[in-house]
Write a structure and sequence with these properties.
By secondary structure, this protein is mainly alpha-helical. It has one domain. It is about 80% helix and about 0% strand. The protein contains 11 helices and no strands. Helix 2 packs across helix 8, helix 3 packs antiparallel against helix 6 and helix 5 packs antiparallel against helix 11. The model has no long low-confidence stretch (mean pLDDT about 80).
Length: about 270
């Protein structure tokens, strides 16, 4: 069950990031991120009402810290996706995001079995191949690479911090995360005063925010019974969804290396399950 929830989180994150990247091409990163966070925050509020979670300092504190880390990661990712190349930014951020919870999980006592270790080993290779099998800095400037690494560190920290929340907290940490990030974004918007986006772009950003919160919910659920190292690695497979959407929606084609990466990603998921 934890593995399936983590995979559901990965798929939903992939769709959310794809939509967020589309919106950022038509509006500023600050505006898109604010809209996605407000949308996600409203959904988190609904989840808190529906799920009987326990309010407490640990749930609010870890959630708020995770919200700041996730906000940094999301803004850096959107900025990277807006400038591209997307095939570099998304998978590279996923590799870094997967590494953080794996390292923390193993350091705090997680002991994956042999199949899980094999699956963990396939994750970086799968993501690298999905990127086209070429992450050389000569193919891109240092800026998108730095944005991807920064985004990955932010997401990885978010996963680790959210996993520290009490099991009986329900969706309270997610609401705390969104309240914190929206507050920070509103302060930034008051200073920067960015232009409002077109209505269609705003709609895409709203959808991205709702899906992002849904993915967070799946992740939080998966950590209740699953090991952080395994769950974090599975969630890092989200670039597979982004690549598939690029094929279906944008008409892009997978080359042989990306096809092999997709196959390895599926194999890794099976081993980790």
């Amino acid at each position: 069950m934890p593995a399936l929830l983590a995979l559901a989180s990965a798929c939903t994150f992939g769709v959310a990031d794809f939509l967020g990247g589309l919106a950022t091409r038509r509006a500023s990163v600050a505006v898109v991120t604010l809209i996605t966070n407000i949308s996600g925050g409203l959904l988190a509020l609904v989840l808190v009402v529906m799920i009987d979670g326990r309010w407490g300092g640990a749930a609010l504190g870890w959630g708020a810290a995770g919200g700041l880390a996730g906000l940094v990661g999301l803004m850096l990712l959107y900025e990277g996706l807006a400038g591209g190349p997307n095939r570099l930014v998304s998978p590279l951020s996923a590799i870094v995001a997967a590494t953080v919870p794996v390292v923390v999980g193993v350091a705090t006592g997680d002991r994956p079995d042999g199949f899980a270790i094999a699956g963990l080993g396939l994750i970086p290779v799968a993501v690298w191949l999905l990127a086209g099998g070429d992450l050389r800095l000569s193919d891109a400037s240092l800026r998108p690479v730095s944005l991807a690494v920064g985004a990955g560190l932010g997401f990885g920290a978010f996963f680790v911090l959210l996993a520290q929340t009490p099991d009986d907290a329900g969706a309270v940490p997610l609401l705390a995360a969104r309240v914190t990030s929206v507050t920070a974004l509103l302060v930034a918007a008051a200073i920067i005063r960015p232009s409002p986006p077109p209505l269609r772009t705003a709609g895409i950003a709203v959808s991205a925010g709702a899906l992002d919160m849904t993915a967070n919910g799946f992740f939080l659920w998966s950590t209740l019974d699953g090991e952080l190292a395994i769950v974090g690695a599975l969630v890092s497979l989200f670039p597979a969804t982004t690549v598939l959407l690029a094929v279906v929606v944008l008409g892009e084609r997978l080359d042989r290396r990306q096809t092999a990466g997709l196959a390895l990603a599926i194999g890794a998921a099976a081993l980790l399950s």
